[in-house]
Amino acid sequence: MEMMVERVCGLDVHRDEVSACARTPSEKRSGARVSTQARFTTNGSGLTGLVSWLADLGVSLVAMEATGIYWRPVFYALEDAGIDTVLVNAAHIKNVPGRKTDTADAAWICQLAEHGLLRASFIPEPGIRVLRELCRYRKSLIQERGRVIQRLEKICQDASVKLTSVTSVVLSKTGRSIIEALIAGERDPVVLADLARGRLRPRIAAIEDALAHRWQAIIQRSLARVWLISTRWTTRSRSSPPRS
């Protein structure tokens, strides 16, 4: 098989350690290849040692598989050092069944890279990476916010507190005031209904009927726990004030 890269290295990355296998031309025999193997930690000094080791061997291409998030510190260290590095989907470099070791995996990745058989995954530039992480985190927060609101609604329904029958959402201004009063120990539907604000003031009678609940101490504790979480996840922006 034709050799595509003269000096290449394959990395098998784990959380605390990375196994490296480099293949370079032999200085003793013309046309022969030499495999050099080493292990490094993934902390600062270990990654510095990996970069120096690759530089000493004159490696021009490093290949590594995507293993969770553990590849990132190694990839970033090599990127900062100016070493051409490709990240490969683990499913694309599956080795034949047999006895697997970290050293063998690194050697296998190195051989594939040596013959140009690896397809690099797309890694955006640093600025785009930061933006992507922020967008993904924002999406996860929005999804978690929805789940917390659903849990809050479930507990209210379990206690026969039919807030959403008279308000559009459980966490409107009126809903928040009523839930806080319930957690504080208020049980009188008349007092709770009087907490209605804005457009819900004319519907106080309907609110009283919706709050004719059956209450248990365990429900109050559950409501208090979920409410504590919801206050962290449901902060609204100033541009969209809570509904009444």
What does this structure look like?
- The protein is of the alpha/beta class.
- It has 8 helices and 5 strands; from the N terminus they run βββαβαβαααααα.
- Strand 1 (8-13) and strand 2 (17-25) form a beta hairpin.
- Helix 4 (126-158) packs antiparallel against helix 8 and helix 5 (173-184) crosses helix 8.
- Residues 236-244 have low confidence and may be disordered.
List keywords for this structure.
244 residues; single chain; disordered C terminus; 14% strand; 8 helices; alpha/beta; 5-stranded mixed β-sheet; Nucleotidyltransferase, domain 5
Question: Which parts are unreliable, with pLDDT below 50 for 5 consecutive residues or more?
Answer: 236-244
Mean pLDDT: 84
Anisotropy-based shape: rod-shaped
Q: Let me know the largest β-sheet.
A: 5 strands, mixed
CATH class division of the largest domain = Alpha Beta
Structural class: alpha/beta
Could you outline the blueprint of secondary structure elements for this entry?
Blueprint: E1 8-13, E2 17-25, E3 33-41, H1 44-57, E4 61-65, H2 71-80, E5 85-88, H3 102-114, H4 126-158, H5 173-184, H6 189-193, H7 204-210, H8 217-233
Helix pairs in contact: 4-8, 5-8
Short description:
With 244 residues, this protein is of the alpha/beta class. It is built from eight helices and five strands, in the order βββαβαβαααααα.
